[in-house]
Write a structure and sequence with these properties.
heterodimer; A: two-stranded antiparallel ribbon; B: about 450 residues; alpha/beta; OB fold (Dihydrolipoamide Acetyltransferase, E2P); Rossmann fold; Ubiquitin-like (UB roll); 4 domains; six-stranded mixed sheet; four-stranded antiparallel sheet; 14 helices; about 20% strand
């Protein structure tokens, strides 16, 4: 007889694994990807492919030749970073900038901290913020949606709905006069608007979110707290002065909020572990997003809001411990 | 349906032997009866090499308060008193007896008829349970007579009976409830009398509907006893989790169930109490599940204590070719054996044979901070944090994060998608912290 294996209990393990989780996320991103490929055409496909390939390439190079450790480039996490980075930059962005963004995401935000699971900040968001600061012009030209376009140069660009409203309000225009300048809400929901590659369709992203919820990759706490606090804060402002502040629904379905709330803020590595911590973190993200969108210098605040809250995660984990068994004696 | 609130997992149930009736395992050629089959001080042998013993005769005495008597499970001659390797892999003292045809101790009533009436006083019941070497048969093997004595100043409201059997694969309690339901109920009545409680609740997970229905029919004749179906969730068989599920009380950290007015006994223990008190029969045999996906005949055997596992494996069709692990107990909390030779003891509820391909742990990769370990921990701990703190020898922080509350149910290691050996680290941490606490209390 062969020798018996001896190990500590338990002796059965779940089928779930890191790469199954990661590829589950990738799978859930397909609807959003299809919508962006439809509205932004070939340019969106190229940006996405470039980001994914360069993220995997940089991770491979760094793990193999710099760290000389195990290469885990196929665990799916670099693929997610690539797809998400592509999803939050304009489709018209020059591809070499996408490559630089990928290097920052993987090299600076992820591998510097020790690779998967060790990073404090969401890699894709760090990449985007780096590009935003380094290449403000290119990062602020958003192509107008045109179905199945194969155009790669001279793409017609324009401001995003959020930018139109922000600019208008700053010029002293009333919200009622600005609304006709942005697409109708049904179009916004579908994704028929100017914006980053994959953030445009709230509907497709929600679909992916439901899949992840069903697969138990994410839980309801962060998206609900995030979107809920956006609705509450934006709604309060709107009720106070509907001439100056646009309604909360507009906030929900424009810009990167849906993608941020469902994919970025829920990133396991950079979000809190426990239920109450998640809720506090989600509320923080929501409030910061609206404050930056309405009072800040940028029309969009999702990336900064989540990165700021990322920094608080260790403190949140410390402050919000799970409910211990037998902590308070209940005799029911 | 009731269940406990914090954490829990639902591993594949794999109750392969649930419809296989209890069979009597033929007498083995020899038995090795360990002296330490219970929690506490090992018993001291009262027989010598060459002595002839009868089935049911006391061969070792539990002299300390927390200890238990040990009886011979067969008739035969004591070959030697030696150290053998038990389920822990350590060598421990045992009495080895060569088996002859059964000749039972005269005082034992072997007739199959049910004796319902019990005229003994509570003190006499406790004495009898003590004499007959009854220990908790769910696995923890705490001497039962100690549990039946309420400490001064405390009062019990409920006797809770653990028929949960939340470990995957195991079915011995399930079969016992189906086939020995009435004896168990009489046993429960006796324990209620000893504890002076008027209410007993039998908690059974809902994957054993036939046992629930069967016992519900039987309890109509037993006032004060009710049957409560529970949602299937591991580790509901944990004492604290069962109390929470059944009567919604939380046993405080580091305290015993009596703190919240209840005592928990296993269904097997209740049958053993019946046999001890009503039939004078000591705890010398028990139902043991032998199971595994590659095993020819997963079965439930009525097995004499001290029978070697190899004998049982043969009776179940032999050791499968692809065997990788032999587990003493269930897959979640059982011990992996290095040789298939350990004896069955009073606390052995099952033997599980796992094929080679399922025995390998996943290769551990970085923690992705998904928080699932904290989500499933039934004690509300943070296993990822405890594992790191223990690994870094930060014992003070471990204690502060309540590492001693961990009951080693294994839910964290089961669920971890990164395949991290969380519980291994926590066990080491618990050992170190336990030592610190003991030296502080001295």
């Amino acid at each position: 007889m062969n020798l018996l294996t001896v190990s500590g209990s338990p002796h059965v393990y779940t089928e779930e694994s890191v790469s199954k989780i990661m590829y589950g996320v990738v799978l859930s991103l397909i609807p959003a990807a299809l919508v962006s490929f439809w509205f932004f055409g070939l340019a969106a496909i190229l940006v996405t492919l470039t980001a994914v390939v360069s993220c995997m390439f940089f991770e491979f190079i760094i793990q193999k030749y710099l760290l000389k450790g195990p290469v885990t480039v196929f665990d799916g996490s670099a693929v997610i970073t690539g797809v998400l980075l592509a999803f939050i930059v304009p489709a018209s962005l020059p591809l070499w900038m996408v490559v630089i963004g990928s290097l920052v995401s993987i090299g600076m935000a992820k591998m510097t901290f020790g690779g998967l699971g060790k990073n404090i900040f969401n890699p894709a968001l760090v990449g985007r913020v780096f590009l935003m600061i380094s290449f403000p012009v290119d990062m602020n030209m958003y192509p107008k949606p045109s179905a199945m376009s194969t155009q790669l140069t001279d793409i017609i660009t324009g401001p995003t709905p959020l930018a139109i409203v922000k600019e208008g309000v700053a010029q002293g225009e009333k919200i009622a006069d600005l609304v006709p300048q942005v697409p109708e809400y049904a179009n916004l929901l579908m994704g028929n608007m100017g914006g980053s590659v994959g953030e445009i369709s709230a509907l497709a992203i929600l679909l992916g979110g439901l899949f992840m919820l069903f697969r138990r990759i994410i839980t309801w706490e962060i998206p609900t707290a995030y979107l809920g606090s956006v609705v509450i804060l934006a709604g309060t402002l709107w009720l106070i002065d509907p001439n100056q502040y646009i309604d909360p629904l507009f906030h929900l379905i424009t810009g990167g909020l849906m993608l941020g709330a469902i994919y970025m803020a829920t990133d396991m590595v950079t979000s809190p572990m426990g239920r109450w911590g998640m809720i506090v973190y989600g509320i923080g993200c929501g409030f910061l997003t609206i404050i930056i969108r309405i009072f800040g210098a940028y029309p969009e605040g999702v990336a900064f809001a989540i990165l700021i809250m990322n920094a608080f995660v260790p403190l949140i984990n410390r402050a919000f411990k799970p409910q211990r068994f037998g902590e308070e004696v209940k005799n029911g | 349906m009731k269940t406990f609130k914090i954490g829990g997992i639902h591993p594949p149930e794999n109750k392969l032997s649930e419809s296989s009736p209890i069979k009597v395992l033929p007498l083995p050629e020899s038995v090795s009866i360990p002296m330490g089959q219970h929690l506490g001080v090992p018993a001291v042998p009262v027989v010598q090499k060459g002595d002839r013993v009868k089935t049911g005769q006391m061969i070792a005495k539990g002299e300390a308060f927390i200890s238990a008597n040990v009886h011979s499970s067969v008739t035969g001659v004591v070959q030697k008193i030696d150290e053998i390797s038990d389920s822990s892999g350590y060598r421990r003292k045992a009495i080895i007896i060569k088996t002859e045809p059964d000749e039972w101790e005269e005082s034992i009533d072997l007739s199959p008829n049910l004796v319902k009436e019990c005229t003994l006083t509570p003190e006499e019941i406790v004495k009898k349970v003590n004499e007959k070497g009854i220990v908790g048969m769910g696995g923890a093997t705490f001497p039962s007579h100690v549990k039946l004595m309420i400490p001064p100043g405390k009062k019990a409201d409920y006797l809770l009976i653990n028929g949960v059997e939340c470990e995957p694969y195991l079915t011995s309690d399930h079969r016992l409830m189906l086939e020995h339901g009435e004896e168990m109920l009489v046993g429960i009545t006796i324990q209620m009398k000893a504890l002076k409680v008027s209410k007993a609740i039998i908690g059974i997970e809902n994957n054993k509907k036939d046992a629930i229905d069967h016992l519900r029919k039987l309890v109509t004749d037993f006032p004060g006893i009710t049957v409560e179906p529970l949602k299937v969730k591991y580790p509901q068989g944990g004492e604290k989790q069962l109390i929470k599920a059944l009567i919604n009380r939380e046993v405080p950290s580091g305290k015993l169930p009596i703190e919240v007015g209840c005592v928990v006994h296993n269904v097997g223990t209740s049958v053993a109490v019946y046999q001890a008190v009503q039939k004078n029969k000591p705890l010398i045999e028990r139902v043991v599940t032998i199971t595994g996906n590659s095993l020819k005949e997963p079965s439930n055997f009525l097995t004499r204590v001290g029978t070697h596992i190899s004998v049982m494996i043969e009776a179940a069709g032999g050791l499968p070719e692809d065997t990788g692990k032999i587990i003493y107990g269930g897959p979640m909390m059982g011990k992996a054996l290095n040789v298939p030779d350990a004896p069955i003891t009073k606390g052995t509820s099952g033997i599980l044979i796992l094929p080679e391909k399922t025995t390998r742990r996943k290769t551990a990769v970085n923690c992705i901070r998904c928080g699932r370990c904290a989500g499933v921990c039934p004690m509300g701990l943070e296993p990822y944090l405890l594992a790191v703190l223990a690994d870094k020898n930060r014992h003070e922080d471990c204690e502060h994060e309540r590492i001693m509350d961990c009951m080693e149910c294994g839910s964290c290691l089961y669920i971890c998608p990164s395949g991290r050996p969380l519980l291994d680290h926590i066990r080491i941490g618990k050992g170190a912290v336990g030592k610190i606490i003991r030296s502080r209390n001295q």
